[in-house]
Design goal:
single chain, mainly alpha, Four Helix Bundle (Hemerythrin (Met), subunit A)
Length: about 210
């Protein structure tokens, strides 16, 4: 307390002003960092989740077609072969696009399993083993379902993280407003004190006459 009394009110106010400004600057940096992370999460939700979900839908569509073709009893084998081969080409055109997205370890594992099922389908085309193709198609569809569930889980996690950072930014924004009010109060205080000091008149010494 004795040390504080050594300083004038103006110095104390300036010191508080400096602390408030420092807090505002630090919270602003944190807000900017959170905003960047929110943007990254939103991009990840689109590029690595929504786009991938579309790829999974395309995969599923082609695998269902392969399974249906293999199950047809009244369809000529050569036509079955051509139709299934064409669908596999469409699937492999998506593979490179899917692999370029950010995949979790579990996703990579399921994706490799899916590719193995597709390879097995391709191997059985020449043998015209339609039952085996149906079985491999069913396995592929189960794998795609697992991949779809991961998309939902990861998308929810990214969204929850983005919402948490958005709430943090709101809290920091409210803190900054409160600190700016304090800053304005201190500024007004300094101006009022300065004006009062200017208006104080020093009384003249009594006349000796």
């Amino acid at each position: 307390m004795k040390d504080l009394k050594k300083y004038s009110n103006k110095t104390k106010a300036a010191f508080i002003l400096l602390i408030v400004m420092l807090i505002i600057i630090l919270s602003n940096f944190n807000t900017l960092r959170n905003s960047k992370k929110v943007n990254e999460n939103i991009n990840a939700i689109y590029n690595d989740r929504l786009v991938v979900a579309h790829y999974i839908f395309q995969y599923s569509k082609e695998i269902h077609f392969i399974k249906n073709e293999a199950e047809k009893l009244n369809l000529v084998d050569n036509i079955k072969k051509d139709e299934i081969t064409h669908s596999l080409k469409i699937i492999h055109n998506i593979d490179d696009l899917y692999a370029k997205t950010v995949l979790t370890n579990k996703e990579k594992e399921y994706f490799d399993t899916f590719l193995l099922s597709c390879k097995e389908i391709n191997n059985q085309i020449e043998n015209k083993n339609w039952k085996k193709i149906v079985s491999s198609s069913e396995e592929a569809l189960k794998t795609l379902e697992s991949l779809s569930q991961i998309q939902i889980k990861e998308g929810k996690a990214k969204l929850a993280s983005a919402n948490a950072m958005y709430n943090d930014n709101n809290s920091l924004g409210q803190l900054q407003i409160a600190l700016l009010i304090v800053l304005g109060g201190i500024t007004c205080y300094l101006l009022i004190v300065k004006r009062i000091k200017r208006n104080i008149k020093i009384p003249e010494p009594p006349s000796l006459n």
